[in-house]
Design goal:
The structure is a single chain. The chain folds into two domains: 135 residues, Aspartate Aminotransferase, domain 1 (Alpha-Beta Complex), CATH 3.90.1150; 253 residues, Type I PLP-dependent aspartate aminotransferase-like (Major domain) (Aspartate Aminotransferase, domain 2, 3-Layer(aba) Sandwich). The chain has 405 residues and is of the alpha/beta class. It has 14 helices and 17 strands. The longest helix has 21 residues. Helix 2 runs antiparallel to helix 10 and helix 3 crosses helix 10. The radius of gyration is 22 Å and the shape is globular. It has a seven-stranded mixed beta sheet with strand order 4-10-9-8-7-5-6, with helices on both faces. A four-stranded antiparallel beta sheet has the order 13-14-17-16, covered by helices on one side. It has a two-stranded antiparallel sheet with strand order 1-2. The structure holds pyridoxal-5'-phosphate (PLP). Pyridoxal-5'-phosphate (PLP) binds next to helix 4.
């Protein structure tokens, strides 16, 4: 198997778009990835041929829809190396997955218990735990990072103690691209008896994830950052924990039997999936994961490393540009500041040249404060980006610099 970026690009119709006459250079992949034709086709095919509600219909369409929907669960269970398909819970995205777990933990935490997160959290993995701690009287501890944006592992370990009930960590920082040594951190957290959740929103699209090898208790991600549809996501959790996890939403699908005064909850995975799910989205997510799994993972990693390395070289040579986040182990994220202008102006002027990046605090306001920056401009690369596009970013940045000067 070889990694052919041009062949991959051909599969993404949106990449042939032009913005004001200029070819689109899409470098906002940490926010959301584009979708290959097979994912778009899976959704169109679902709605064109077998749209129906799942699990309860006594007709052909309902059978077919249920088969496709549950087949997607098997695909994801295999992709994550889950011990059982019952451990794969559909969500609307990473945020919902974290909320389901934080809601359950908040009911178990006692006054004085501790929850540990890091200074590099996305708001989804910070505000949830703030609220869980506020509701229960627990204390939220924050593990520090260094000025390069790397977690200080010794400080993280020092914060772990018998009171630490829960640890929630990002596999990869969305704002800086830092890859955390999650296996090592999970081992330390488990040694004090804590449950561990890995926020895989930014980790999932960079190679295979094996939840059993990771050793965490929960792993969450969003479909839209893995070439799948928006409004889809996965909460993976150990079956022994999820089997009696406090239910999140109540209603149809998640019940076994109901009387006017009470209800009995369904078994996994349905007990945490109330209401009609995003069936077409889940079918699309299954297609996305099948597609992603068919890629050459080593070639993919080599390509991503080459993109980041070229971008870093060009950034270092660019007069008046400061890279924010210089971790030794990073995904394809280049967060930066230009001396000449505010990130928002940089983003606006790049867009005028067809280059799409993201600017602002990247839903990591405390991290920006910690680093002493107002926000950053962030170019984030994916497997369909080319070295030529990285170079186009810097050609465009040169023009931005001249315009702002
Ligand atoms: C690290 C991280 N966690 C959580 C989220 C939230 O994901 P979603 O908005 O898809 O729920 C994001 C989104 O950017 C993220 O990057």
């Amino acid at each position: 198997m070889t990694f052919d970026v041009e062949a991959i690009r051909q599969q993404f119709p949106i990449l042939s778009r032009k913005i004001d006459g200029a070819p689109l250079v899409y470098l906002d992949n940490a926010a959301t990835t584009q979708k290959p034709q097979c994912v778009i086709d899976a959704i169109v095919d679902y709605y064109s041929h077998c749209n129906s509600n799942v699990h309860r219909g006594a007709h052909r369409l309902a059978d077919e829809a249920t088969t496709k929907f549950e087949n997607a669960r098997d695909i994801i269970a295999g992709f994550l190396n889950a011990a059982s398909r019952n451990e794969v819970i559909w969500t609307s995205g990473t945020t919902e997955g974290i909320n389901i777990i934080a809601n359950g933990i908040a009911q178990r935490l006692q006054v004085g218990d501790e929850v540990l997160v890091t200074e590099m959290e996305h708001h989804a993995n910070l505000v949830t735990w703030q609220q869980a701690c506020k509701r229960s009287g627990a204390i939220l501890r924050i593990a520090p990072i260094n000025d390069d944006g790397e977690l200080i592992v010794s400080a993280f370990n020092d914060l772990l103690c018998a009171k630490t009930q829960f640890v929630a960590l990002p596999q990869v920082s969305n704002a800086l691209g830092t890859i955390n040594p999650v296996i090592e951190l999970i081992v330390s957290a488990k040694a004090v008896g804590a449950l561990v959740l890995i926020d895989g929103a930014q980790g999932i699209a960079h190679g295979a994830v094996d939840v059993q090898a990771l050793g965490c208790d929960f792993y969450v991600f969003s479909g839209h950052k893995l070439f799948g549809p928006t409004g889809t996501g996965v909460l993976w959790g150990r079956e022994s924990l999820l089997a009696d996890w406090p239910v999140w939403q109540v209603g149809g699908e998640m019940i076994l039997s109901v009387s006017y005064q009470s209800a009995e909850w369904n078994l996994l995975p349905y007990r945490l999936e109330a209401g009609t799910p995003n069936i077409a989205g889940i079918v699309g997510l299954g297609a996305a994961v099948e597609w992603f799994s068919s890629l050459d993972t080593i070639g993919l990693k080599t390509h991503e490393t080459a993109l980041l390395s070229r971008a870093t070289d060009l950034a270092e040579a660019f007069d008046g540009l400061t890279i924010v986040g210089r971790a030794k182990n990073k995904t394809g994220v280049l967060s930066f500041l230009l001396d000449e202008g505010h990130p928002a102006d940089v983003g606006f002027l790049l867009d005028r040249q067809g280059v799409a990046i993201r600017t602002g605090n990247h839903c990591a306001e405390p991290l920006m404060k910690r680093l002493g920056v107002p926000g950053t401009a962030r170019a984030s690369f994916s497997i369909y980006n080319t070295l030529a596009e990285v170079e186009q970013l810097f050609t465009a940045l040169n023009k931005v610099k001249a315009m702002l000067a």
